[in-house]
Amino acid sequence: MVDSKHYIEKQFFALGTINYIKIYDCYDEAILQLAVDRVNEIEQHMSVFLQGSDISNINSNAGNGLVSIHEDTMQLLKLGTSFSVLSDGAFDMTVRPLVELWGIGKKKNYIPTQEEIHAALQLVCYKDLFLDETNIKAGMRNPGQSVDLGGIAKGYAADEVKRILKENHVNNALINLGGNVLTMGKRPDETPWQIGIQNPLAPTGNNFGNLSLSEKTIVTSGSNERFFIKDGIRYHHIIDAKTGSPAQSSLLSVTVVCDCSVDADALTTALFVLGLEAGVNLLHRYNADAIFITNNLGLYLSEGLKDCFTIANVQKHSNGGNYE
Ligand code: AMP
Ligand code: MG
Question: What is the pTM assigned to this prediction?
């Protein structure tokens, strides 16, 4: 609906999260609906939970050859695989058996045994995902293996929403798919968008800082999204495919800022697993910036964000600082 703030907005549930799209320079509700329909279509193709989705079909057929998938699923699996290669497996869509074993947010504070972790780890390897681009088919090498696009699908969907809005001549909009933010143009008063960066140690809505920018995507992976703490260890939903456990990389969250949301989504997950030093090295291979928040609320900000990030009133830790 068009309100007194002169924007139209659609809030909707998809991809397991709450999403919204706000358009500031046109009042055509049909454009919003086109965008929502596309996000729903992406979910239908790529959800690991929906029976009959491409991903469910790949998983239930693991070890039995390839299954036909949609073009967009192929595109995303291909892209995800290239991030796996570049991050040396830090980003790995085949972590699903470990995600299920840990059940973060589903099982109650469950810590699997070393035997269980070892068994699930045998099923995880991005090199076991076969893609036949000519016939648009995909499959996993061994029975029990499975893929999960949870670390990349929201970014892909956000880029698709932007494409649809652009095609319909929308220039000023704010897209937020479960925290995967994409800004288009500027605010109605011509000032840049203001995007809050969550303080990972505080309740939702408490910002660690603020980004002021236009025409960028801002994506965060954090150990504060789904987690529990036991014996001082934070168990969360981002799995290190080398150890089989939630990544313990001395980071609380990573935010990536760049032009393409799907790249940002894959990168945040990979950088979170890699940790600060290796993460910064990988970041340099992309045209992207990042904010790393370390375990003790230290802040590392890449060069390109120095003029647009303002720190909020949180305690800055002694080891904080810029890495460049
Ligand atoms: P994100 O919040 O974008 O970092 O994505 C986390 C989600 O991606 C998890 O809920 C899992 O579904 C999946 N995931 C977990 N660990 C990894 C990983 N190392 N590589 C790729 N996807 C992962
Ligand atoms: Mg991600």
Answer: 0.94
